[in-house]
Design brief:
nine-stranded mixed sheet, mainly beta, 314 residues, 8% helix, four-stranded antiparallel sheet
Length: 314
């Protein structure tokens, strides 16, 4: 697995010299800092010493994506390096960074909600000052009552799976299996009316785990087995302190299954960073780093990662 990631990192390094844009070789990159950051993200997969960070972005009401890295410290530090023209979005799942088969172009992909429709976007990193060239394809309607979406991507071993989770205003959590470019409903899990924000913290062959907050401020892990008709397992991590957050992001940290989590309060455009040990209910250790020095003025906030990174937080 590390060899695969290393090969991807090397391919990414080659992009710094020449990038194919609409079939045309570009000898000089007008935005080298962005390309360098993306290559660092890939190289981090093979370095145990790479510092932990929360790589996240948010979509502003104007449709622009802002983002960067929130670095753990007291208070946290913030390194902005993303500023892309995108599309209006009310909820977004994880953005995944990958390379095309030829190893010549980076691209992001992911799912988003716009109004009552679900879209899949593919956003190629290009050689222009604006950064990416996004395209969005409608894959479904009837999503008006969904407040939040999240995705898992277990891609590095068999049996692979990619699931879409949707938190509905009717109090149920829905799961869909991605099959090619379409989605198959796997049914609804009732009992989530009190929940508010969610993000994925674990992706394994047999289960996914969501980190979810309630309107009253509690935070839970929700383990959802891959097996059909299996019941989710909820564990309370903390009973208070998380009521303000409309969005969560999570990234792995260290070699023992730790996680960096950022909670986003869209009412005050604020983000707060936490470190958690490998999640184990109330026994989970937590460090609150405090408020990040950035203005999170988005309609939605989402984690960024690579196709090859797997979450193992629970």
């Amino acid at each position: 697995m590390k060899l695969q990631r290393f090969a991807l990192a090397l391919a990414g390094a080659g992009l710094l010299a020449a990038t194919a844009v609409s079939g045309t070789a570009v000898a000089a990159d007008p935005n080298p800092s962005v390309k360098a950051k993306l290559t660092q993200k890939k190289a981090a997969a093979v370095s145990a010493d790479e510092p932990c960070s929360s790589w996240l972005g948010w979509v502003q009401p104007t449709g622009r994506v802002q983002g960067g890295d929130v670095l753990p410290a007291k208070p946290p530090k913030y390194e902005p390096w993303m500023d892309y023209k995108f599309v209006g979005t009310r909820s977004s799942a994880t953005w995944y960074l990958n390379l095309n088969n030829a190893g010549t172009r980076f691209y992001y992909y992911g799912l988003l909600l716009q109004g009552g429709n679900l879209y899949r976007h593919v956003s190629y990193v290009n050689g222009t000052a604006d950064g990416i060239a996004p395209t969005a394809t409608k894959v479904g309607s009837g999503w008006t009552s969904f407040n939040s979406i999240a995705t898992s991507n277990y891609s590095m071993a068999q049996p692979r799976h990619a699931y879409l989770y949707g938190l509905n205003a009717n109090g149920s959590l829905y799961r869909y299996a991605q099959i090619g470019t379409s989605f198959k409903s796997l049914g609804a899990l009732p009992g989530f009316r009190s929940f508010k924000a969610m993000t994925v913290i674990s992706e394994t062959a047999t289960y996914d785990t969501l980190l979810m907050t309630t309107k009253a401020g509690a935070i839970y892990t929700v383990r959802i087995p891959v097996a059909a008709n299996a019941k989710p397992v909820l564990k309370l991590v903390r009973s208070t302190g998380f009521a303000a957050y409309e969005a969560l992001t999570a990234h792995g940290c260290g070699t023992r299954g730790g996680s960096l989590v950022v909670g986003i309060d869209h009412d005050t455009d604020s983000g707060y960073q936490y470190a958690f040990s490998k999640f184990n209910g109330a026994a989970t250790a937590m460090t609150a780093y405090g408020k990040a020095p950035a203005v999170f003025d988005g309609t939605t906030t989402m984690p960024f990662t690579t196709y090859y990174d797997q979450l193992v937080g629970e």
